[in-house]
Amino acid sequence: MLREDARVFWKRSEAPMTAEDRLERWLADQAPPTRDLAFEAAVAERIARRRAWATAGALTPWAVAAGAALWGLQPVAADLGRSLGPAMGQALAPAGAMLVLGAVTAATALGAARRFVRR
For 97, which of 34, 77, 89, 114 could close a Cys bridge (C-beta 3.0–4.6 Å)? Predict the structure, then answer.
């Protein structure tokens, strides 16, 4: 008898639930995810791509300046190649000198660009 009385008491004390009440209770029971890792990875990838393009854009003027400097130093490199020509060979000396000058200019441009790029 006690069992039936308890069941009747439970039914009387609680109002009947509507569909909205059930949906609200169901949504309240589910906690939202604390972190959406896929979304965070996609955002981080977009930020990294934007920074990479900005870095490449910052290096463009330095690359143009390096090309202009190499073009201007071409006669000097040719004279250097002629003076070293008998020892190293006529074809190898100008190419080697241009490679060395290009490497020095590229290293200088990269160092200067790193100094001016904001992190």
Answer: 77
